[in-house]
Specification:
The chain is of the alpha+beta class. The chain is built from four helices and five strands, in the order H-E-H-E-E-H-E-E-H. It has helices at about 1-25, 70, 110, 140-145; strands spanning about 50, 80-85, 90-100, 120, 135. The strands form two sheets. Strands 2-3-5 form a three-stranded antiparallel beta sheet. A two-stranded antiparallel ribbon has the order 1-4. The chain is elongated, with a radius of gyration of 25 Å. It starts with a helix and ends in a 24-residue tail after the last helix. The structure holds iron/sulfur cluster (2 copies).
Length: about 170
């Protein structure tokens, strides 16, 4: 009888301890989201794969295919091609491929670009079935963003400060 009472009291203590912990967590602020219906906004210093930046005035990519980023990449991830459009002073990028399977997110390409034409995206939602899914056509991606309805264009396209300048967003 005594043993049974001991077991019951231990069980009750354990039950109340569990409820105390559960209620404590219940009233704490929520830190999770209902993924994939909700996603978190990545902080400014987050490094997703690189992406081309659009000039807000012209609406076109800032990149003029100088290939400095291609040469700076230690992993040979980048392949850039450009064309000289009629009447234009500079070339314009016509193809920008990134092999993200080889990228170490080192940032050498972003640092090498003097015009802030590439930056790290905030993209963390990548899933694929083969390595080919990570060979990205960044020029096409930028064009598709322009065509997408507002709010469905992937990463924001506002111009950010060049890599050498301090980013005021960074806390
Ligand atoms: S992203 Fe910058 S460094 Fe790379 S090709 Fe374009 S302008 Fe040149
Ligand atoms: S972040 Fe580094 S490894 Fe990745 S593409 Fe740029 S230079 Fe290459």
């Amino acid at each position: 009888m005594k043993k049974a009472l001991q077991e019951i009291s231990q069980g009750l203590i354990s039950l109340f301890e569990g409820m105390r912990i559960t209620l404590g967590q219940f009233f704490k602020p929520t830190v999770t989201v209902h993924y994939p219906h909700e996603t978190l906004k990545m902080p400014p210093r987050f490094r997703g794969h690189i992406e081309l930046v659009r000039d807000p005035e012209t609406g076109r990519a800032i990149c003029y295919a100088c290939k400095l980023c291609e040469k700076a990449c230690p992993s040979d991830c980048i392949s850039v091609e450009g064309v000289k459009l009629e009447g234009a002073k500079k070339r314009s990028v016509s193809n920008y491929m990134l092999d993200f399977t080889k990228c170490s997110l080192c940032g050498s390409c972003v640092e090498a670009c003097r015009d802030g034409a590439i930056r790290f995206s905030r993209e963390y939602n990548l899933a694929g079935l083969s390595k080919d899914d990570y060979v990205m056509d960044l020029f096409k991606r930028l064009e598709n963003e322009a065509k997408a309805p507002e709010g469905q264009g992937g990463a924001a396209v506002e111009k950010q400060p060049a890599a050498a300048e301090p980013n005021p967003e960074v806390k």
